[in-house]
Amino acid sequence: MPIKIQQRVHSFIWLLAIHKKLFLDTAKNPFKILELLFSTEESFIKAELDDIAIVLYAKPFHRKVSPRSPVIIVPGDGGNQLEARLNKTETVHYFCQKKTSDYFTLWLNLELLVPFVLDCWVDNMRLEYDEVTGKTSNSPGVDIRVPGWGNTTTVEFIDPSGVGYGDYFSKLVNKLVTWGYIRGVDVRAAPYDFRKAPNHNIEYFENLKFLIEETYYSNGNSKVVTIGHSLGNLYLLYFFNLQSPAWKAKFIKSYVSVSAPYGGSVKILKAFASGYNLDQWKLVLNPLTIRKEQRSMTSSAFLLPSTKLWTADEVLVTTVSRNYTAYDYKEFFNDIGFKKGWNMYKNTRRLLEDLKAPGVELHCLYGVDLPTAERLVYGKGKFPDSQPIEINGDGDGTVGIRSLAACMDWVKEQEHDVHGRILQQKKMRSRRFWIFFDTAYKNANFSYLFSNHRSRRRSISSELMKAMVDVLDVIGLYVVINRNWSGKGDARFLAAGLGWSSADSLATRIVPFWTGARGTTFSWKYIQMCLESNYNLVYYVALASFLWLWTRREIPSTMKIALRLLMQYYGISSWILLIIHFLVTVFMALMAMAFYAVIQPHNGR
User: Transmembrane residues, as ranges (predicted)?
Assistant: First the structure.
């Protein structure tokens, strides 16, 4: 038996010996490996997490070749962080920042996506399009960069704080790490400026080619698996179309495509006409406010429904005066008052229509059976500044089925294998990735592949409201102190502060943490976080009260000793002293009130 064939047989036997369940299945069906990779049955979720490794590990095992294929992730629209530095001469509002000494997080930063401040964000995030040269530039005085090249940090969590609403590729990367992968070594990412169409990001493709080659050589000449999501798939397809067959044969093992809008999306027409805020509260995210930024993105024009998939008699937008098809974009842009959009479209339309099969092994994954806009209807006086009624068809919730399934046409166009997998609606209810401008975010549901439990759907509206909690606290304190609490000013403020902080702690900390502990794999750390967070706010208010008492009151010497001892308590926060920590915190809060009552008669004011 030839050495190479023998090595492959040994590799496969080794894999089957580890995966007993897979051995039984593949004995009956040799294609079970690929079926398990894209399976969405809940009973197979755990099996998928283990057996998906086959795609990454199935290669000869010998010393000169790594036992697994390195992975490079290309995220979707809005799927990686962006940083900005400001040096502006003017702003849209007086309170918008003009200059910054260093780069700050522009995307994703929910603190910037609140009313009024949103105007500042839009002005910083938007692009300027030169109709003569066909090139784009940042808003004047704004320098934007893409952090995290080559590592997964900025795609695992789009929000650098690492909290839930910014969770993106973390589950995939964490799972790969459990298989032995190393961040920045054999699991890497290629983030990009998702505001721009591929022809405005040429340098990106040069860097991506170098990254793939570097990853290949640094991992024992192991071919690379590329994983794309949403717009990232169009970037990858554009990239593969630029490369020679010989280069792809040497460096690429396979390409995993997830929720790719290969033919564009009708939702983009909504973004251009009326603004698209992911159907969140208009009070929080006004679609007309963010429309200016969405219109400036050449990647938006790049994602308009393609004439390659839509015919001239298929209506996409209906108004009182006329209908618009994929062949009426010039009139559409004129009528919405954005004539520049037609030039942006002409500059990018051929990119999508001319794209051919990638020329590598392809795994195409997409969702169906979810209501997806296929036509927008505007009533009288509604076009273009009001939200339309959506006439739905089949798709993944954002991208229509014909665009998602376009990848299957490549079965006849390339000699490499094309594997498709459809995810049904009833199996698409796990946590989704909520990305603000992602044209295919709703059903890029990696949780069935990379997570072994269900999670709750998160709403960006609730997270934005949390960003405004300080304002609500101030209003609440004002109401409590001035209307619902008797006594003198100092006493009312102190009592209301302690009471309000306790209520705030209960509402925003103990309930979410306790629910989180019940909704995930049990760990005592959740209980500890729950208890600690419940009294921490009260603790700090009480500590501030002691400092205030210490500096502004005539306190008897005996009380000063007690105060000094209590203030030393600040550094205790370990698990062993958790109960003591809690009891002493309650004691501090009560003592603060008691001390105030004792020394009140000595107040000389």
Answer: 534-551, 572-599
Any residues with CB less than 8 A from the CB of 429 and at least 6 apart, and which? 454, 457
- The residue type at 147: P
CB-CB contact of 205 with 212 (8 Å): no
Span between the terminal Cα atoms of the chain, in Å: 100
Give the mean pLDDT of the chain. Answer: 75
Same domain, 419 and 544: no
Instruction: List b or e across 146-157, with b for residues whose CB sees 16 or more CB atoms inside 10 angstroms.
Output: bebbbbbbbbbb
pTM, to two decimals: 0.65
Instruction: Report H helices in 243-355.
Output: 245-251, 267-273, 287-296, 298-302, 329-335, 340-353
Q: How many domains does the chain have?
A: 3
Pairing of strands 71-74, 187-189: parallel
Give residue 29's domain range: 3-65
Domain match, 42 and 160 both = no
- Please tell me whether the peptide bond between 384 and the residue prior to it is cis, using omega within 30 degrees of 0: yes
Identify the DSSP state of 405: G
What crossing angle do the helices spanning 524-552 and 511-519 adopt, rounded to 10°?
160
Co-location of 33 and 160 in the same domain = no
Which tokens go with 267? 């939702």
